[in-house]
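[SOLVED] Need 3D model of a three-part complex

Original post:
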Amino acid sequence: MVFILIVAGMVVCAIMAIRASRLLISAIWLAATSALVALLMYMLGAPEVAVIELSVGAGLVTVLFVFAINISGEETPNLKSLLPRPLTWISIIAFLTLLGYFCLPAFLRSLPEAQASSLQTVLWEDRSLDVVLQALLIFAGVLGVIGLLSEGNHHPAKEHDV
Amino acid sequence: MTPTLILSIIALPWAGAILVWWTGDARPRLQNALAILFSLSAGIAALLLIPSARSETALTLPVGGVFGDFTFVADGLGVFLAAIATVIGSLAVIFSVDYMHGEAQLGRYFALVLFFIGAMAGLVLTTNLLLMFVFWEITALCSYALISFNSDDPKAVYGGIKALVMTQLGGIGLLAGALLIYSALGSYDLNLFIEKAETLPTSVLTVAAFGFLIAAAAKSAQFPFQTWLPDAMEAPTPISALIHAATMVNAGVYLLARFYPAFESVPGWKTAVVAIGVITALLAGVMALVSNDLKRVLAYSTVSQLGYMVYAIGAGGIFASQFHLLSHSVFKALLFLAAGAVIHSIGTRDMRQMGDLGKHMPLTRAVFVVGALALAGVPILNGFWSKELILEAGLAHGPIWAYAIMVFSAGLTALYTFRCVWMVFYGPAQSKHHGHDAGTAMKVALIPLAIGAVTTWLLAGPFSHLLESSLPFHDIEASTTLLFILEVITAPATLLALAVVALGLVAWWQRKRLSGLAHALQVIGKAAADSFGFEAINRAIVNAVQGGAESLRATHTGLLNWNIFGILAGLIVVLVVLAAGG
Amino acid sequence: MNLSIPGIIIVAAVALLGIGFYGLLAVRNLIKVIVALQILVKGMMLGFVLAGRLAGNVTLGQSLAIIVIVVDTIVAVVGLALAVQIRQRIGSLDIKTLTSLQR
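Solution:
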């Protein structure tokens, strides 16, 4: 029952995040979604990733959103989609139906007991390439942001090279 | 110690690349210093690694269960090629300091050069096929970016795109081969593959063998992909030296040499390798004879000499081919850098506008002549010994028709080399260009290479020991330098080859009397100037790729909603296929 | 109602995916696009953790989810930086104005 409540709340939050007409409100609904996802993860027996999701997804990213929205300013966001509305709904419904078909077996299963195994071993030893690539990615992300936000010395001519 | 050295050979240039880029173009002197520092220290690390060459895996980076461990081996082949890449590469960097002086965007230039050098070192040191493919593609990317470094010159951009498309074609061959091997063997370790090659199904082995051959031919500009390399001449000259001598084209020869023990028994493979080498050497030699662009002549000569190496591998002469690779790297880097000094001082590449330049640039002339004589295969210089070893290996194990053509090509090599030297440095002065001699940094790069061109053949003995002791599958016989010298001198084939080289010289000497013959051969000359029609084929491939991309532009609306719709439609198709399939 | 817990979670994950995709299809403000992307990826993460739990290896699911979080955060950061720059140079966040490469 608790699960149903959380999931319902989460879906409402997500829908509100898309529908909200002000960007700032939208970001706050996103943070709420993120917090509820973290809670679900915790209840599924994944406390480590729940903590990360809560701090990064609900915390850091929200701060960044607020920051970015503050800099760039509000704008009436609810313009009409470039895609015809029926096409949007048809493709979404087709996608959800197909995906739901694949998910049917999950309804017949009950949740198995969580096994104790160390996250460190899996993350650092079995998937160490991923960790290395993550480090690279973070590095690239930092470089990208530095490049984007270095405002003082941008030459209009150089933009064509990039 | 060995793991540290291996890591530093790859990581130092890459770290340098980031630092140089970070420094920014406002401080060119610091950029120069950093580039030289990092490339030189990588070169020193590579040289230090040579004594500890072993066939066992030296460094294992565990990356989890999915890709297999990333393993590195410091065996003779890898260490030697890494040393060439880093040492010649650092000399090219030093040369660039003078050559690129005052150019814009030095940071991009040096960062790409260093990235290139590190990737090549990684390519030859790793034994994980997947990682090898990654490094392979990085070198392709760097070569593309450096060839079209002058991005406002459409010819340079075209040359870069051509190089990229052609080497990508080869990359597909490499990837297909590697994935097939993985599916059959369950491991990306290439030493394991070479060891167990005979137990694999013949079909897998055949596809992998020819896939790798295509990859090598595309990378080393062998027939029928030979035309991208001359078009790559739009690059700054140190880049040409880098691509021709240190980093790029050696990779193909390396690939063939590395996997020779595995593919030896595949029917038709050795013949195909020999045929590719022979055709390339001959065609490129003829094309070099009719070209009037100094850098193009050198480019065709590279293609031709690479043909020699490929031919040697096909004939089973792994040692001969790698030894020629060493000689070639030294004298070709020397020739290119010297040509760069000439071009830098007079500002044209057209040999018809040169002539009598020796008076103004005696040092450049001296080193260029040394390199040219080595290329022509004149005794004592390193090119002579290694080319003789290749011809001997070809005579002993290869088909006789191939040998005959290769000896003829040796004469051709001598002929076009003498023509080139004459037109640039000795012939009548064609214009009022007054060149100045090479700058200090240029001299620093040229003189060691000139010394190397005279002396590296003395390393034949140690080099054969290096390869023999660390390559368990290649059946290389070690010997001493003295024995190699005796072997070469006493072989009757040497005299034949020398006679042909002399004939080439005489043919140039008596070119006026031979003018009747030259007229008769004009048809061939015309065809050669058009690269025998292969230029058209290669251009068609490149244009087809570009045209296809152009016409696909219509689907790129740039409207995000539609792009997402495309992604979602693709996902739905995948789901439908999955649902229908089971 | 007699839904099993995996059933409920899978509904949540699929719903998040659907909402995210809807957002990407319908929204034209660049910052909103990033919000939709975040929702989409959260659905994915939930799916990873659930699959890990069902397969009896919840730590593998967790480590994959961590990777997804990292990637997603970087996408958000770079995307927001881009949005700020675009707003300052072009003056609009409407994705329809960002089609200068079109012809």
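Edit: The radius of gyration of chain B is 24 Å.
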